[in-house]
Structure formats: C-alpha cells, structure tokens
Amino acid sequence: MTTPAPSSRLCLRTKMVLLGDSGTGKSALAQVFHSEGASFPKVHMLNTTPELLVKTVAIPDTDASVELFVTDLPGLEPFLDVTKRHAHGASAFLLVFDSTNKDSFSGIGKWLKVAKTLRESEPLIGCLVATKCDLTKRRAVPAQQAQDVARSLDLEYFECSAATNFEVDSIFYYIANATYEAYEEHIKGLVGDSAS
C-alpha cells in the first residue's frame, strides 16, 4: 500500500516538514513511517541538521501516488535559522509535541509561526500530532485540550506512538490524501476557468 502500483500514471510530490521541540519524537515518527515500522530508534540522537526521508504512498481507488519528501528538522532554539531555511517551500507540516511534556505543547505557537512562513500564496496542509501516547501514566497534556487547540488552528489532530507503531501511518496517509485532493481541486479550478 505504500509503493505505487506499476500502472500508476500520476505521481505527485510534496515536501513536508516536522516541526516541534527537541525530544518530542519527530525523528522516531519519521523513521518508523519510512521503515514501515521496522526501525524504531532506541537511543535519542539530537538533530543539528535536517534529515530527509522519501517514501511513496499510493492513493486508494486511483492510479495516483504521492511521493512524500519528509524533512525532519532540528527542534532546538540555536538551530531555528537552519530550521526556517530548510522548511521554506514546504506544502505540508506536522506540529509535533510530546504528550508527556507540557512545555513541548506550550511551544506549539512558536512552531506554528514557522509553519505560516513556509509558503506565501498556496494553502498549507497541516496536522497537530501528539507523540508517546503509549506512555499513558506519564501523560501531561489531555487529549481534549490538544483536540481543542487543533480545532482552533484548523488543523487535523492525531495521537500516535512510534515505539508501538500506533497510528503512525495514518498521519502520513492523511497528508498524502490531502495533497491528492488539493491537486484534484486545483485541476477542477483550471478546467472551470478555461470553460468560462
């Protein structure tokens, strides 16, 4: 389901960025998705440079696929300029926070400001993502509070665990499908404009 069928004629490409504080699980999320659950990093490695992972997602009931260029960006303040530079031009983003860390949730506003600078004219596809949801006894950010914030920001909301591979694919499949739907709407607009 993650690689296009040989008959796939349309392949869209989209750059997406993972934004959030250091230690929120952005790298683990990206690596688990990219490896189809086979690779969960057991040791936290601090990102100081962006990491790019590419994976193709087939769009169900179509002959299309979306190639996701997933850019995992550093989450520490000293690297904010690097993060902004590498995030520019993305058409999709994930605002990632650690469900066991209130400070990472409070930092979402800073990352939303970065996300709003990604593209000047086209709408962005975005999600608010709570990680480490398998650590229920350590949960510090209630799901309802996060859902309310996502709704107020007009973002989709997902809860996941890279450690258990819970709902990881759903996030990226949502981005791929939303990219395809935006393409379809754009084409309909072009056809409608030329018919007028």
UniProtKB/TrEMBL annotation:
GO terms for molecular function: GTP binding; GTPase activity. PROSITE patterns: RAB (PS51419), RAS (PS51421), SIGMA54_INTERACT_1 (PS00675). SMART domains: RAB, RAS, RHO. Keywords: Nucleotide-binding. It comes from the Eukaryota. This is Small GTP-binding protein domain. The lineage of its organism: Eukaryota, Fungi, Fungi incertae sedis, Blastocladiomycota, Blastocladiomycetes.
